Amino acid sequence: MHFLPNDQMKRITSPILETLAGIVGDRVSQSDEELMTHASVLTYHDQKRAEVIVYPNSTEEVSEIVQLCASESIPVIPYGAGSSLEGQITAIYGGLCMDLRLMNKIKEIYEEDQCAIVQAGVRRSRLDQALERTALFFPIGPGFDASIGGMVSTRASGINAVRYGTMRENLLSLEVVLPDGKIITTGTRARKSSTGYDLTHLFTGAEGTLGVITEAALKLHFRPGAVLNAVCSFARMEDAVGVVRNILSSDINAAQIELLDEVMMAAINSYSGLDYPPSPTLFLEFHGSALDIEEGKGRLDDIVSSYKCLFFECSSNPIQREKLWQARVNALPASLSLRKDAVVMTTDACVPVSRLLENIVAAKKDVAEAGLIAPLIGHVGDGNFHLGILVNPSNKEEMARAKGVAHKISLRAIESDGTCSGEHGIGTGKLGYMKKEHGHSLSVMRQIKRALDPQNIMNPGKLVVFEYERPNIQPGRCSE
User: Fold this and answer.
1) Which CATH class is domain 106-222?
2) What is the mean pLDDT of the chain?
3) Which are the contacts of 207, defined by CB distance < 8 A and separation ≥ 6?
4) In percent, how much of the chain has pLDDT > 90?
5) Annotated domain spans of the chain
6) Are 200 and 155 in contact (CB under 8 A)?
7) Is this structure's pTM higher than 0.85?
């Protein structure tokens, strides 16, 4: 085997289709509609279709399919729920899209060990339902009802990361099909190990470029004894971020710290018929025992009162808590209601909390100077914030202005010792920032890619690419 330039990768022929049918039966499709929907659902980046879609229902079938693709030098694009905001599942070089939705078994829940063994196609909501009968929950919750395999592949996080960490901190082991079809398991259900390389985390965030994740052992957590939700609005962004920094430096058990700016709050008020102040607003959630929550409420009152607060309400009553958080739940549709002809171009910067305010203020200035509308929402407890830039994709000049804003936000985050992507990944959309963010470490990533995937068939053209594949990649030219 040798590392093939992508223009030498073979196309899928009738004999190959027949072999695929021999592996998965009628779970093979070349339907135009399916090929298009599998190119990507939510991304604004260029979408290119695979040549065929297969729906395996076991790790063994995945292995056989990958062996066939390796023998024929056919690209393999693993597919979960299809959110792919940065174009991770677009088939740049054609090939085979491997949709893992049928691998959706929750194989075992070990309550005593706080662990669940699930197949890669299990959706986040289905895992929640399975855990309802237990005292446990899984804390990683991206806004989209993602698949577990996709969440592992992009190292997803969501609104609970400030307390429970990201996907990285909530994995015990993985089952992976390597680019030659071999099946490996990267760890055990034990909570720690000091044996060998940490392969579990090598494949976490690899975006399908090193193998196909087929199964995961997930770390679960006990549900908190009590929960407190709070909403507080401020006259200035400086006050809102100041409260965040004070909460993080206190002993209050913050689980969620969400920041919505004045543009987002005005949109939510209009969309949901609410009357919150149209100003920077924090949506907070705290977990702990009943005593923890009672004490934490008092400390929260003290923190908030030291800033210019326009509105403050908190409750531990489940019905009232749900009402308080309804505004946060409606953030995305409220954003879209601001422009009927627009889609959302989402930025995804993450910076040290000490650099959060300056990055937010600068980003909002960029938006104003570009004459764009871009509500802000952030998981600011871990320094992650998003601007939802509303653009008409058919307006090239407007798209260029929006990409210019996104470019400035990404560069500024990297220069702040942060990252251009806190939770959405790289895909094709942010390739241009990998060298600037990782420096010489990028060459190590390329060596790992070449060693594990010598033919470059696993999701080629994503995350870690080689100069001959995309020679003109530069920051600010990420979608070329």
Assistant:
1) alpha beta
2) 90
3) 88, 153, 154, 425, 426, 427, 459, 462, 463
4) 72
5) 6-99, 106-222, 226-335, 339-425
6) no
7) yes
